Amino acid sequence: MKIAMVGSGYVGLVSGACFADFGHDVVCIDKDQAKIDALHDGIMPIYEPGLAELVESNVKASRLSFTTDLAEGIDGAQAIFIAVGTPSRRGDGHADLSFVHAVAREVGENLASDAVVVTKSTVPVGTGDEVERILEDSGTSHEFAVVSNPEFLREGAAIGDFKRPDRIVIGAESEFGREVMREVYRPLFLNQSPILFTSRRSAELIKYAANAFLATKITFINEMADLCEKVGADVQDVARGIGTDNRIGPKFLHAGPGYGGSCFPKDTLALLKTAEDYESPVRIVEAVVKVNDSRKRAMGRKVVEAMGGSKAARGKKVALLGLTFKPNTDDMRDSPAIAVAQTLHDAGVKVAAYDPEGMEQAAPLMPEVTMCDSSYAAIDGADAIAIVTEWDAFRALDLAKVKELAKEPVLVDLRNIYEPNDVRAAGFDYVSIGRA
To answer: Mind listing the pLDDT tens digit for each residue in 305-326?
Structure first.
């Protein structure tokens, strides 16, 4: 089967490479000539473990190609995926659907055979209806169906998530759409991956509901962490205690500085706007967004307090370890590190930082931060060290070397990756999340 993937960003490139690895003939399409040129040269626009190798092998096998020409790319494709960005619209928080609509118009104008048009982008409820209207207005004489097929990829583990999914959600209103999508995902039938066929609107809402629920779990355990610090409990014990309940589960119960990334912040806002439009408020999600936003700066204040308070901290240096919103990605979107660094800067603190993959992306977002070549270079002369992202590289720091390099042995662990007794035995003042 020929598949066209319109949009060669995170979702489009990972999905296209995985479909090609299943044996489909995939063309990834993007308007950005520089990105397509780089892909032709084997240079990935994002950092994702295993992606470069997957792309290379499928290009060599002639199953994966890249182009800026949409008409050429969709010619003969039985499934045309729309995988362009839907960022939060400035001013009101609604998802910006201008790219999705533009692609739909161009597809309609260039459709040369019967095809299923699939929204892979995260879109609000009713977007599929609008895409269908746009295609109808294009005057195409070919049969088409519009399907919603939301992605559930975790950055840093996207290839595994695509090939071994928890579920595949397909929102289709016609048998033609369902039939083509069965063929698209036929290789996963062999793995008995659960495929859930729903209405198109249900599929669109499933994506937002899933992300909002996960964001709620994160925010809940973060608030429990604050309570644990007040009452003398251990949030990791609490998380294990509730996570072993099958009704709750252990995932997304790791206390930290708040959620960030490309999905949770914009998707919770978009869900709020949809609920507002339909006069069906989702108060829990409203609270989650507010608590998470305030938590990020609160983590910056936590570092300041560990240095003795605002007066004592002014003019001192903090080493930030980890800048991306999570490990194994270079994604800086809504990373807690941005707010932490800004809070420290506002308090008159000098900030040096190191991240294994994210510094190029971080530099323009954090002009007040000095980027360093290594963890130890950032730590050199620091009055406090703050672990913001739980990269594996930070889990086994040489504490004796850290103590020697740092001006003051203060370690603020915003991800709880160290055992308090071990760090204190090494001579550090140790502050963590949700542990007395």
So the answer is: 999 999 999 999 999 999 999 9
CA nearest to 14, candidates 206, 141, 152: 152
Indicate which residue of 18, 28, 228, 263 is catalytic.
263
Active site residue 263: yes
DSSP 325-380: SSSS----TT-HHHHHHHHHHHTT-EEEEE-TTTHHHHGGG-TTEEE-SSHHHHHT
254 shares its domain with 369: no
- Are residues 72 and 50 part of one domain? yes
Q: Is residue 436 part of a domain?
A: no
Q: Cα(318)–Cα(48) distance, rounded to whole angstroms?
A: 29
Residues 316 and 307: beta-carbon distance below 8 Å: yes
Give the residue numbers spanning the domain of 362.
295-431
Mark which of 148, 177, 198 sits at the end of a domain.
Answer: 198
- How far, in Å, CA of 29 to CA of 8, rounded? 6
Q: Residue 361 carries which side chain, given as an amino acid letter? A: Q
Tokens read off for 28: 């990834």
Q: Are residues 19 and 139 in the same domain?
A: yes
Based on the structure, what is the number of domains in the chain? 3
The residue out of 140, 169, 198 marking a domain boundary is 198
pLDDT over threshold 80, residue 91: no
Other beta carbons within 10 angstroms of residue 258's beta carbon come to 26
**Residues near 292 by beta carbon (within 8 Å), at least 6 away in sequence:** 215, 218, 219, 222, 258, 259, 265
User: pLDDT tens digits for 337-359?
Assistant: 999 999 999 999 999 999 999 99
Go through 347-369 and write b for each residue having 16 or more CB atoms within 10 A of its CB, e for each that does not. bebbbbbbbbbbbebbeebbeeb
pLDDT band at 190 (very low <50, low <70, confident <90, very high): confident
Count H helices and E strands in the chain, helices first: 19, 14
Q: Are 26 and 150 members of one domain?
A: yes
- Rounded-to-integer distance, Cα 125 and Cα 47, Å: 30
Both 273 and 314 in a single domain?
no
The set of residues, in sequence order, having a beta carbon less than 8 Å from that of 189 and lying 6+ positions away, is 182, 195
Q: Which of these, 233, 255, 251, lies nearest to 299 by C-alpha position? A: 255
Is residue 313 domain-shared with residue 189, that is, in the same domain? Answer: no
| Sign of the dihedral defined by the CA atoms of residues 306, 312, 314, 318, in that order | negative
